[in-house]
């Protein structure tokens, strides 16, 4: 499958470079980018999605789940042509309220913009472009749930900008990291790094982390991205620590995990064809000490030494040339992920953490910013004999 993924990226690049090269801005913008482009002082936007999920099993009847999964209101304010503020207020499952983004931006010039506040970590595709009209499938890919946990945002500061002559967009931030230990383990094999997101909610920092991304958009319809995240998980054991107390320092050091994450992504549109692919590799250090320190009695925690995840997707707008206002996009996506790609010698690989998934269905874009979606998702872990099946249906908006 790795060869297939590599071939997928090479194919998209080769086909794209056969087209006429143009220095056009990327056609992919998330909702915050759209707010920053408005001319008015106060700008308002939003996105949301309502889902229906029905597990299917020939032997067991299961109830379906209906959920107002998320509704997000976006507010921005342009103080002047250089200084802007953007925030997103998110309501999940009707009852949970979060701040998804809240950052101040100062534009020095087109090449350099300073940002500070609560920002999305620039890893991959979905973490930045997660509005329901920007991707196929009712639910976000599994890779973006467990390997690079969407929606992943932390507090920090840094720079972003466009190098127009080279058709490159870049981001570089210093941020606080995952909550690895606050009295108990937050990271493990089952959920990967997902439980460690601090989300800007009374976050704490014991060591800073660095993240960045560079994107190339100089060929019509093509966007290529390389992203990275490097640092350590955070631990509350460092708070008030006497650095001369070697026992206490060693204990605190055992409660953190080193994290090096690399992401590659590609999106390409050619006539009615839509291709995208994504690859993540997470290398974790100090996991042996972390698993022992966060053990539950005699049972070790099971955080792996490395994680991997990737997917390839193809879709085609069958209404191309027929209806300029609507799009009907049948698609198919193949995913693979493993939070136990490698483990310490004293931990056995759990086959339940190694999964492949096939999702196929269609997106009907009724208008710009309004979509109806339906799909079937087939998921199989290594410890299963057959695929579990789920029928999904949903509506999404972005404005």
Question: Which helices and strands appear, and what pairs or packs with what?
Answer:
Layout: H1 2-17, H2 31-36, E1 42-56, E2 65-78, E3 83-92, E4 96-107, E5 113-120, H3 143-146, E6 153-163, E7 168-175, E8 179-181, E9 209-216, E10 222-232, E11 234-235, H4 246-253, E12 258-270, E13 273-285, H5 287-293, E14 306-316, E15 327-342, E16 354-367, E17 370-381, E18 388-398
Parallel strand pairs: 8-11
Antiparallel strand pairs: 1-2, 1-18, 2-3, 3-4, 4-5, 5-6, 6-7, 7-9, 9-10, 10-12, 12-13, 13-14, 14-15, 15-16, 16-17, 17-18
Task: Provide a descriptive summary of the structure in words.
The structure is a single chain. By secondary structure, the chain is mainly beta. The chain has one domain (2-398): Porin. Helix content is 10%, strand content 48%. It is built from five helices and 18 strands. The protein has a 16-stranded antiparallel beta barrel with strand order 1-2-3-4-5-6-7-9-10-12-13-14-15-16-17-18. Strands 8-11 form a two-stranded parallel ribbon. β6 and β7 form a beta hairpin. The two termini are 38 Å apart. Mean pLDDT is 91; it is low at 1-27.
Residues in β-strands, percent: over 45%
First CA to last CA: what distance? 38 Å
How many beta-strand elements? 18
| CATH architecture designation | Beta Barrel
Features:
mainly beta; 399 residues; two-stranded parallel sheet; Porin; disordered N terminus; 16-stranded antiparallel barrel
Describe the structure concisely for a colleague:
By secondary structure, the chain is mainly β.
């Amino acid at each position: 499958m790795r060869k297939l993924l590599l071939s997928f990226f090479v194919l998209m690049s080769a086909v794209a470079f056969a087209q006429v090269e143009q220095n056009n801005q990327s056609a992919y913008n998330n909702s915050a980018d759209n707010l920053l482009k408005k001319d008015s002082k106060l700008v308002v936007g939003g996105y949301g999605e309502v889902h229906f999920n029905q597990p299917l099993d020939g032997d067991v009847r299961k109830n379906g789940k209906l959920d107002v999964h998320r509704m997000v209101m976006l507010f921005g304010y342009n103080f002047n042509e250089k200084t802007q503020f953007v925030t997103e207020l998110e309501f999940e499952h009707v009852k949970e309220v979060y701040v998804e983004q809240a950052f101040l931006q100062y534009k020095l010039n087109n090449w350099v913009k300073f940002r500070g506040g609560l920002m999305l970590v620039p890893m991959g595709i979905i973490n930045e472009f997660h509005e329901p009209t920007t991707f196929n499938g009712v639910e976000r890919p599994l890779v973006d749930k467990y390997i690079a946990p969407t929606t992943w945002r932390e507090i920090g500061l840094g720079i972003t900008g466009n190098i127009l002559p080279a058709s490159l967009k870049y981001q570089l931030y210093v941020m606080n990291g995952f909550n690895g230990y606050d009295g108990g383990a937050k990271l493990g094999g089952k959920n990967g790094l997902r439980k460690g997101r601090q989300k800007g909610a009374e976050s704490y920092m014991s060591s800073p982390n660095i993240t960045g991304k560079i994107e190339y958009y100089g060929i019509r319809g093509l966007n290529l991205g390389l992203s990275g995240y490097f640092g350590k998980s955070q631990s509350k054991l460092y708070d008030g620590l006497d650095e001369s107390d070697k026992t206490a320092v060693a204990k605190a050091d055992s409660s953190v995990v080193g994290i090096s994450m690399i992401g590659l992504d590609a999106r390409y549109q050619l006539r009615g064809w839509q291709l995208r692919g994504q690859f993540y590799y997470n290398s974790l250090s100090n996991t042996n000490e972390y698993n022992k320190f966060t053990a539950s009695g005699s049972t070790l925690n099971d955080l792996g030494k490395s994680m991997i995840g990737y997917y390839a997707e193809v879709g085609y707008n069958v209404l191309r040339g027929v209806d300029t206002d609507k799009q009907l996009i049948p698609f198919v996506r193949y995913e693979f992920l493993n939070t136990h790609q490698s483990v310490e010698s004293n931990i056995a690989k759990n086959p339940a953490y190694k999964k492949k998934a096939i999702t196929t269905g269609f997106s009907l874009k009724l208008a710009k910013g309004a979509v109806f979606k339906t799909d079937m998702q087939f998921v199989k872990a290594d410890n299963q004999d057959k695929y579990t099946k789920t029928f999904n249906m949903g509506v999404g908006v972005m404005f």
